[in-house]
Amino acid sequence: MDGTTTALVSAVFVASLVEFVEAFTIVLAMGVTRGWRSAIAGTVAALIALTAFTAVLGVAISTWLSESLLQLTIGTLLLIFGLQWLRKACLRASGLKALHDEDEEFAEQTQAAREADRTTYAGIDLFGFMVSFKGVFLEGVEVVFIVVTFGLSADALGMAIAGAVVAGIIVIALGVALRKPLSRIPENTLKYGVGVMLASFGTYWAVEGVGWFRDGEESLHWPGGKVALIVLIAAWFAVTRLVIAGLSRPRTSAPTEAAA
Amino acid sequence: MKLLKAFGLFWYDFIIGDDWKIAAYVVAALVVVAVLAVNDVLSDGATVIIGTVLMMVCFALGVRYDARRTRP
């Protein structure tokens, strides 16, 4: 496994871990308040929908797009996702946005679940089912996008899937063992790291893929080839540190975890 | 129609997210790179560096703008 693949698998693993933790919090909240039967049914239904979505997405982008158009499409999506994560990380690190807190999220979800009316169908509480389905599907779609795009672009789909599956197994195992939100996982820091990786790979592929507009659709070439990825990772990290330093001011509260 | 609107909103929210400026400047920077590349104005190396720097500058300015609006 070369350096690029290692970085890719690490990014997929961490991104999946963060998304699975968020999905787990929602399912846990539904399970303890609305019953495990509906929470698990919603989760299983979402996993089936995600499997179908993954198959369609994977076949569609690997069949219909040329190499440079694939790089441009995937790179642009990753870059937009990455910069959204980095923007939030910069605002959180400089105290302008609250840190994401799974305990708080769990409390909000359980409160909403307790207040909702109970409507059942075939013994399944529809509120618990729908909230679990939506939570797992929405978080899962992001994982699917990252796995499919990273995997296809680096020609290492198997490794990317393995990274996501391992992350899922770890979250489920920890969740079943602890039976509470996984708030001790340093989610904000991990999101910052993933944001840097997504932005770096996204920049690399999106700019490379712009060659699709040229005669012959030949991709643009980065100086130094894949070594440029290391420079991009360092550069995006440096840019975000400069932004955070420029925005920082004394915090009014002491967060347990800094987004850095 | 309602379903179609919900479908569209889901993808808008998923791809564009809560800050449309990011998608806007990413596309704008890529258009600049495309213009430079198609017209063969500079070497590939110089073109990709200009595109990357442009994105980084836009990101920094975008976050700075958001921070100014967020501060009380």
From TrEMBL, chain A:
Cross-referenced Pfam families: OFeT_1
Segments traversing the membrane: 6-32, 39-62, 68-86, 156-178, 190-207, 227-247
Keyword Transmembrane helix: yes
Signal peptide coordinates: none
Annotated keywords: Membrane, Transmembrane, Transmembrane helix
Classification via InterPro entries: OFeT_1
Keyword Transmembrane helix tagged: yes
Domain of life: Bacteria
Protein name: Uncharacterized protein
Native source species: Aeromicrobium ginsengisoli
Classification lineage: Bacteria, Bacillati, Actinomycetota, Actinomycetes, Propionibacteriales
From TrEMBL, chain B:
Transmembrane segments: 20-39, 45-63
Keywords associated with the record: Membrane, Transmembrane, Transmembrane helix
Domain of life according to the entry: Bacteria
The protein's name in its UniProt record: Uncharacterized protein
Source organism of this protein record: Aeromicrobium ginsengisoli
